[in-house]
Amino acid sequence: MEERHKAVQFSHDLMRRRYLASRAFCRRVLSPYAGIAPGELELIRPANGKPCLPGNGQPQFNLSHSGPLALLAISRNRAVGIDLEPVIPRPSMLAIARRVLDAAVVEELAAIPDTERQLEYFTQAWTAFEARQKLTGNGIFGAKAAPAHRIIPFSPQPGWSAALAVEGETDPSLTFFDY
Q1: The domain 2-58: what is its CATH number?
Q2: Using CA atoms, how far apart are residues 127 and 84, in angstroms rounded to an integer?
């Protein structure tokens, strides 16, 4: 199993355990949607690197985990991407923003005088960007995803920022579970 092979590559036990826990969580939650037992689910990684279930008609999903938190987005009929980040100081925040975010976002970010508000804005912009990139499987430095995708920003808990990217421009029906 690819997951076990990847898990042994982590040098820190805590990171290895979190990786395995997030994959087990993903399998348990996806199982009823796919109609397949968690241990029988085959998660494949096509050329674009975005994990998926083989076959037509399978649910679309995307997983993000950071530190002790994990988020899983599932859709029966639309591509999804999700990202999660702690709102923590980043010494090269503007340099990172200039490298990957749209010029208009960078301009707005640079104009915010309050450091704390600037950090919150950057983290929200980053999670929106990364969720959109994960939706398409393009990765952070890949071709930028079309802005027509719906972005839904939210905070899963204080001190954290997250964003869900959904294919198309209509609002999805959302259900949140605390697992």
Answers
A1: 3.90.470.20
A2: 6
